[in-house]
UniProtKB/TrEMBL annotation:
Name of the protein this chain belongs to: RZ-type domain-containing protein
GO BP annotation list: immune system process
Example GO molecular function: zinc ion binding
This protein's record includes keyword Metal-binding: yes
Keywords from the UniProt entry: Cytoplasm, Immunity, Metal-binding, Zinc, Zinc-finger
Domain RZ-type, chain residue ranges per copy: 1-85
InterPro entries attached to this UniProt entry: ZF_RZ_dom
Cellular component GO terms held in the UniProt record: cytoplasm
Upper classification of the organism: Eukaryota, Sar, Rhizaria, Retaria, Foraminifera
Subcellular location: Cytoplasm
Main location: cytoplasm
Length: 695
């Protein structure tokens, strides 16, 4: 940046109180410099006394060629020395050729350019793993560490110097630099649409003059920077207001109740209040579309189309409540957007929902894959936040009270009762079931219990508010936490019209009862049952009964577990009283058949005629494995090449026209499972007869 080696002289003059005065550096014919003040050029003969030079410069008639103006080359390479004076006093440069100013750059622009140059060099050095060799040569340093240390010192020094010159503190200066850097690329492209023309002096001076003109007064907009800084603080405070308050409380060491220290998952706990809204929105979606829409149709249908369809079907009076539910659903979703969640060994990021006419209905349906998996993970995330919060509150509360206070605490703090787990369907969750912390209400509570604190005689001084922490915490606990329990939320999956088959029903049952997956289908008990069936018709009848039971069970799925967690007993009860008998997986299967009103003849199929029946009864937990065993046996019996000849099968392998395919698809979707089974039975019988004829 400097044009000569005499910048130290200028800094000394500034440091001694001569800043702002006019002075010019001139040179004798032998190149010795000296400073001339006032008019900037010698008006009389001056004798150079440096090293007994004796050369004359200037005269009374002012001849341009004898004024001592010297054309200097800009030193190449890095000429800054990193001295304390260099980083504490701002530099400015100007240059005239005759009476024409060809260069002018003031302190602000000069210091700003140096800051940007050193930041760029620092990034360049960090981008190379072993350091940039060219920078080591330029700065005459032996290692990358020395380069980094030097550039860091220079960058920090020029940042502080820029703050000193502009009279901005670090916070406001950072805001100003952010604004400047945000617009610099556009401004540079406007100056040089085709890039910088070159690196010669004329081009360099032109750039410096433009830069100085653009940013000389940029840092004087104090009002603007304060406004931007306050706006950013407000945006941060909206999400972190409670966190900052609790941080202040922790610093004061005045905690008497542990509730305020339990906001470890701040964003998730604020969103727990949306669980009832999510449940009600999805309940309406399931009511209108369960078993009535294919998965492909669900993916293509948007939320806007859904609302319009409901209005057309006569639900216009409820449209407002539907829109409110959808708004809450979307708000909760976007509050958790961009979070990474795990699914088995994989993970994915929750996407953001934008325009309603582009959001697929599939996002509002629970599935074990694709977009339907996202809402399942969001619900589980909120459930975990709710449960963790309650467990931490209970644990820390017990640690804070001493033995003498325990009896009184049991009476006064009933919200700290022993937490018992409760299983609830997503569709039946209400505000009273979850920790419905609301930012506005919590802030209002804090304001209500914020008391003014003034010393005697200081009535005109600024008011200092004192927080009644005990009252705040107890009111929050009473309003938002009392009577809440650990939750295990049952999430029903949407059944599509093209998914209604036995295998999907079995998947639903096993997904909600993990223990059933561990049952082997070739265990001796089931093999004994299979051998007890005396004919193929009995085998078919047993499989048909199992089909009906499995469909029924999948529609009334139950979960029953006993789980011990941190000395609390979580009893996850069933949410459907009608199906309470199935919560015991070790109940006899025939009892289930009796409850479902199967006649005695059908029940006897599953009662093996054995001496020791106590240990050889088919149980409810065997049903999925038994279905697989029976299904394999039926298929191997009725689809056998010895009974159905290949030429017969080839007869039925005729391609269908597109119209017939569509008609067949519509018929299958509108035909019950029982009727479809009968059609297949008839087809098998016909195929057997045809095969025997050909033989």
């Amino acid at each position: 940046m400097p044009e000569n080696a005499h910048m130290d002289i200028i800094r000394v003059m500034k440091n001694t109180g001569n800043e702002g005065k006019t002075f010019t550096i001139r040179y004798c014919p032998n190149g010795h410099p000296f400073i001339i003040g006032a008019c900037g050029h010698p008006t009389e003969k001056v004798i150079c006394a440096v090293d007994r030079c004796g050369k004359e410069i200037g005269d009374l008639i002012y001849i341009d060629t004898n004024t001592g103006l010297k054309e200097l080359e800009i030193p190449k390479g890095y000429v800054l020395d990193g001295s304390d004076e260099e980083l504490s006093i701002g530099d400015s440069f100007w240059r005239f050729e005759g009476k024409q100013e060809i260069r002018r750059i003031y302190e602000v622009a000069c210091t700003l350019l140096r800051l940007l140059i050193h930041l760029s060099l620092l990034i360049r050095n960090a981008a190379v793993q072993e350091g940039c060799k060219q920078l080591q040569e330029l700065l005459k340093k032996e290692s990358a560490e020395e380069v980094t240390k030097f550039l860091e010192k220079q960058a920090i020094g020029y940042f502080q110097l820029l703050g000193k010159i502009t009279e901005l503190n670090d916070e406001l200066l950072a805001v100003a630099l952010h604004q400047m850097l945000d617009g610099l690329p556009q401004i540079f492209n406007r100056w040089y649409p085709n890039g910088l023309d070159g690196t010669d002096l004329i081009t360099t001076y032109d750039f410096e003059k433009k830069f100085d003109s653009q940013y000389a007064g940029f840092f004087s907009r104090l009002e603007k920077f304060n406004e931007l800084n306050n706006r950013s603080r407000i945006a941060m405070d909206e999400d972190k207001a409670m966190k900052e308050i609790f941080s202040e409380i922790e610093e004061k060491k005045q905690l008497t109740n542990p509730i305020t220290s339990n906001i470890s998952r701040i964003y998730e706990i604020w969103s727990v209040k949306y669980l009832p809204v999510i449940g009600q929105w999805m309940r309406h979606v399931y009511f209108h579309y369960s078993r009535q829409i294919t998965q492909q149709e669900c993916q293509l249908k948007t939320v806007t189309q859904v609302i319009e369809e409901w209005q057309q079907k006569g639900y216009g009076s409820e449209a407002k409540s539907y829109l409110q539910l959808w708004s809450g659903f979307k708000t909760c979703w976007n509050a958790l957007a961009n979070q990474t969640v795990k699914n088995d060994c994989k993970s994915f990021t929750i996407p953001r929902l934008d325009e309603d006419d582009k959001i697929s209905l599939e996002f509002s349906t629970a599935q074990n894959k694709n977009n339907g998996l996202i809402i399942v993970k969001i619900i589980q995330l909120l459930q975990d936040a709710h449960n963790t919060f309650l467990e931490d509150v209970m644990e820390k509360y017990e640690k804070t009270i001493n033995h003498e206070e325990k009896h009184e605490a049991k009476n006064d703090c009933r919200y700290m009762q022993k937490i018992i787990g409760k299983n609830k369907s997503l569709f039946n969750i209400h505000e009273s079931d979850v920790v419905c912390l609301d930012k506005d209400q919590v802030t209002k509570i804090i304001q209500q219990w914020s008391l003014p604190s003034l010393k005697y005689g200081a009535i005109n001084k600024a008011r200092n508010d004192t927080l009644d922490l005990y009252a705040i915490e107890n009111e929050i606990a009473h309003r938002f936490i009392k009577t809440r329990q650990i939750l295990e939320i049952g999430i029903p999956f949407l059944q599509f019209s093209n998914q209604l088959n036995i295998k999907n029903c079995i998947d639903i049952i096993e997904e909600n009862n993990k223990e059933l997956k561990k049952e082997p289908f070739d265990q001796p008990l089931l093999q004994m049952f299979l051998s007890s069936l005396q004919s193929q018709s009995e085998m078919q009848r047993a499989l048909g009964i199992l089909n009906e039971v499995i469909v029924f069970v999948s529609q009334n799925i139950k979960i029953f577990e006993l789980q011990i967690n941190k000395n609390y007993l979580h009893v996850l009860m069933s949410c459907c009283f009608y199906f309470i008998f199935f919560m015991h997986r070790d109940k006899y299967f025939v009892e289930l058949l009796e409850q479902m009103s199967f006649d005695e003849k059908n029940r006897k199929l599953f009662m093996m005629d054995l001496e020791d029946r106590q240990e050889n009864f088919i149980l409810c937990r065997h049903m999925c494995s038994l279905w697989r065993l029976l299904n394999n046996a039926v298929q191997s019996t009725f689809v056998d090449k010895s009974t159905i000849d290949n030429c017969v099968l080839d007869t039925y392998k005729k391609s269908l026209t597109e119209q017939l395919k569509q008609q067949l698809q519509a018929t299958v979707e509108n035909t019950s499972l029982r009727t479809t089974e009968k059609i297949l039975d008839e087809w098998r019988d016909t195929a057997q007869i045809e095969g025997q004829k050909n033989e």
